[in-house]
Amino acid sequence: MSSGLSDGVLVYSEYDEGVIHPVAFELLGKSREIADRLKVEVWSVIIGYRVEDDTARELIYYGADRVFVYDHPRLVCFDPILYKGVLVDLVKQVNPSVFLFGATPLGRSLAPRVAAAIGAGLTADCVDIQVDECGDIVQIRPAFTGNILAYIRTSSRPVMSTVRYRVMRMPSRDTGRMGEIIRLIPMVEGDLSLKVLGRISRRSIDLTKADIVVAGGRGFKRRSDLKMLEDLASLIGGVVGVSRPLVDEGWMPREHQVGFSGNTVKPRLYIAFGISGSPQHIAGMRGSEIIVAVNIDPSAPIFRIADYGIVGDLYEVIPKLIEELSRIKRV
Ligand SMILES: Cc1cc2nc3c(=O)[nH]c(=O)nc-3n(C[C@H](O)[C@H](O)[C@H](O)COP(=O)(O)OP(=O)(O)OC[C@H]3O[C@@H](n4cnc5c(N)ncnc54)[C@H](O)[C@@H]3O)c2cc1C
Question: Mean pLDDT over residues 262-287, rounded?
Fold first, then answer.
């Protein structure tokens, strides 16, 4: 069934228990730019249970002209098969020109399923999307482990991408913006592909949202030495990040990894201890506001992007920092 709508730039807004993932707002900001160039509307779709109008309206405040809401008890938890069915149905109804997802674990699971079902291509992990002089969409993503940027044009429609969190600018929230909330009936009949028996909240860190990241690399000699890093992080309200070798060693869980194959972070302050500054690591933290590097090797590449550099041994620098910061805090 056709809705009479067509060509809008559609953003999937990840939603869980009343909260929209902020990557959706970043995508709406980028979609606004694309849509203004193409002279089309910006749409957003939200799937869940008990999705309030006030929640959907937030998407309008960040740039959507229309928000499609699918609200049903069977959509309360992410079910890749059910969610895919809902989105495929929406694409058939509204025929978007572009369809964007956050490159979150959920988005990375859902977007390929939708793309395969509608016969579209998908560019994963984009860091930018542009409209060229002919009005074609160009998807930009790192290639060859982050050493080059690939500019990708695709002829399939809609143009589908997953986009990394915290690489796009967060648009401002404009409560004066007007838009339409459209509630649609989801097709959720048939056997559930997934039976949710219960939910257990796991206390997990979200490096991508941290304002301060205190990161360690192979300069650390033993796993137990990372305790210093944790102490420093908790002293200054930061979160511990690591380079990939420490994750590969099993010293830290993968959710702490910064870089090309880990998290992209954009904190106000990033302190790197014993990290050389490989292209793959820098790909995940170069957007940090202030970068401080501590390394014994004055020629370490990390110093080329650091705002402040200390040539020194982390085993001396960290205890001194902890001591001095504790003293300041006591005063
Ligand atoms: C496909 C692919 C994806 C990758 N993805 C990632 C990724 O997401 N994130 C990532 O980090 N890496 C990634 N890598 C790995 C990357 O190429 C590097 O190997 C890695 O970033 C190096 O980590 P490091 O800087 O901790 O170690 P090293 O390069 O070994 O650097 C250690 C540094 O510590 C310094 N040092 C030693 N002792 C001390 C001391 N006592 N005090 C101070 N400084 C000291 C040394 O001078 C050196 O500069 C990826 C690689 C590939 C191929």
Answer: 94
